Amino acid sequence: MIEWLKKVSLFDNLNDEQLEHILRISHRRTLPQGTTLFYEKEAGSTFYVVLSGSIKLFTKSHAGEEKVLSLVNAGESFGELSLLDGLPRSASAQTLESTTVLELSSEQFMGLLQDHFDITRGILAELCRRLRATNDHVNDLTFLDGRTRVLKNLIALANKNGKRDGNLISIPMSLNYDELAQMAGVSKAILSEVIRELESRGVLQFGINEYKLNLAKLRG
Questions:
Q1: Residues 142-186: tens digit of each pLDDT
Q2: CB–CB of 56/93 below 8 Å?
Q3: Phi and psi of 191, rounded to 5°?
Q4: Is this model's pTM higher than 0.90 or not?
Q5: How far is Cα 45 from Cα 196, in angstroms, rounded to an integer?
Q6: DSSP code of 96?
Q7: pLDDT given for residue 14 in this prediction
Q8: How many alpha carbons lie under 13 Å from residue 197 in its C-beta half-sphere?
């Protein structure tokens, strides 16, 4: 478990004794695919660290339409916002596959922030990253066409989750077409059209639970 925690960016600068303390005050859970950890507008009382698997953060409109905001993968954390400002959850969280998380209560989380400035700084950096990503997304929706948004989103997923071998990047894919379309801010029909085009050019190759992005074909 200590080795797992060392892969979490928030805990980069903690020693083994400090990591063991985190393990003592936290609770580990393994959740099956499709498990909802919390819902939008609920009161927040728990901070989460993903040890393995992946989770989607999403919102729903009054009409029930879903919008995927982001993916949280192994080594990343989420759920701190409502603990910091005391307001309800700003999004829902659901596992995309079998996922193991470490849970800390609000009191334990605040104690860590008080005792470890490196963790506090990491939380602030993550909040800033999300704000910048939101600004970029609003800009994309305003100025980019659907095809460009799809391509940019696929490249962003490759940069974040992909493993590169020469010009080929393999990206594990736990999202379905609907969720990919939601992240890119396009209809499913536009997503399918763009993906067919990229596949015909050899830019994309879809396999079981993954896709491959060919950078040489993309540049061509």
A1: 888 999 999 899 988 898 888 999 989 999 888 888 999 999 999
A2: yes
A3: -60, -50
A4: no
A5: 43
A6: S
A7: 85
A8: 11
| Strand duo 168-172 + 210-214: pairing | antiparallel
Give the residue among 193, 108, 185, 201 at the shortest CA–CA distance from 152.
Answer: 185
Encoding tokens for residue 190? 């536009």
Q: Per residue in 37-82, pLDDT tens?
A: 999 999 999 999 999 999 999 999 888 889 999 999 999 999 999 9
Element containing residue 3 per DSSP (H, E)? helix 2-5
Classify 211 as helix, strand or coil.
Answer: strand
Q: Which two tokens stand for residue 42?
A: 């609920």
C-alpha 182/C-alpha 150 separation (Å) is 10
User: Using the 8-state DSSP alphabet, how is residue 88 labeled?
Assistant: P
Token pair in block for residue 189: 């029909």
Amino acid identity, position 206 = F
Q: Which residues pair with 40 in a beta bridge?
A: none
